[in-house]
Amino acid sequence: MRLLIQGFLNGVKALTKALFSLILLLLPFFGLLSQSIHFEKPLVVTTNSILKDMVNQLAGDKLHVTSIVPIGIDPHNFDPGPSELVSISKADLIIINGLNLETWIMGLIEQSSTAARIDTATKGIKPLYTGRYLSAMDPHAWLDPILGKEYIRNISNALSTLIPYAVEIIEFNRDILLSELQAVHSFTKEKLREIPVDKQILITSH
């Protein structure tokens, strides 16, 4: 009987040792798998660097964000190539400015056959038409801090849908940005009031 018990215990020890060795062998695999899952972030593609900066300020490090048009390049006449097509095809979310700023974007999206959701940052913003041609609208709505707040609201809504697990972070950053833009608007109005009406001349580059 004693030999039988001893044999059973030895068998249990051998099995335990074998299982422990197997776990040690599999740990690197599970570690790599865990890292892969942990660091796999959704890809957001924006049409310009201004929108990219807004996304980064709202979502922080929760997303991988790239801009189609590089900094310093005119988005009006940008000519996208194969690399931009690849970025669009891999995107989980595409954020465009709208208001005819990037007239080439829809053609690029169609070519890519992307399954990404498309959101427009200027959604709900009433276009400002310029000149004598009704189709000539000003697409640079973000230059107005009040309209810039609409950008932030629209983008934050899109990001909250994409990564609902980060809603609290997005909303916290959204409120900060909205407050900062309101402060910029108030500061600008205050400074403009200090300029005599007959001296209020605005010169723009285009």
Keywords:
single chain; 206 residues; alpha/beta; two-stranded antiparallel sheet; 6 helices; 6 strands; 10% strand
Which class do the helix and strand fractions yield?
alpha/beta
Give the SSE string. Answer: HEHEHEHEEEHH
Count of extended strands: 6
Which whole number gives the mean pLDDT? 85
Low-confidence stretches: 32-38
Distance between the termini: 99 Å
Radius of gyration, Cα only, in angstroms? Answer: 27 Å
What would your notes on this structure say?
- The protein is of the alpha/beta class.
- The protein contains six helices and six strands, in the order H-E-H-E-H-E-H-E-E-E-H-H.
- The chain starts with a helix and ends in a 13-residue tail after the last helix.
- The strands form two sheets. Strands 2-1-3-4 form a four-stranded parallel beta sheet, sandwiched between helices. A two-stranded antiparallel sheet has the order 5-6.
- Residues 32-38 have low confidence and may be disordered.
- It is globular, with a radius of gyration of 27 Å.
- 54% of the residues lie in helices and 10% in strands.
